[in-house]
Specification:
By secondary structure, the chain is an all-alpha fold. The protein has seven helices and no strands.
Amino acid sequence: MNISELPYSLPKTPKAQCQYLARICSISLHKLSNNHQEESEAIASVIIYRHLSSNQKIEAMRLIQTLNNKPLMAKLIEKVTDVIVNPQWGIWSLSNTELLKDQKFHDMVNSYAGILGASISAASAKELASTIWKTKKVSRGGWITIVMWGSLYFNATELNKANQEISNRSKLLDSVHYN
């Protein structure tokens, strides 16, 4: 579990590296201690966990469980569990190929929605809210509109997450572990 295997241009100091990796994984900085090198390696092992062999996964989990910082250890185990259940819960765990496919899919949905004219405008939202307020109920068409808007919002959020992660990955590595 070497942090140099990660697809990020990391800061120079161990503290800044640890904080950078924590931000990538949405870990609160207050969970970090002063053992920056050990914690950076543990966070790095979480990021690449899905791409490790069985033996490497055992080693990664040992590394995480030997942390003296128990709140961070618990958070890292939670992150590993999350990406095993659903890699999208930790977009940073996607390989470069998976990430680019994810971005392409959400961009395509966004483009087709634009072509079809499916968007959320302030006027249409105001109209729907006014109708609901007056009738005290949501019509079938209103529910369809709400579901459609929710889907478009979700897709835009996912596209933004993919774009942000691609931006974070200043170097797209072709390593065996992460591609």
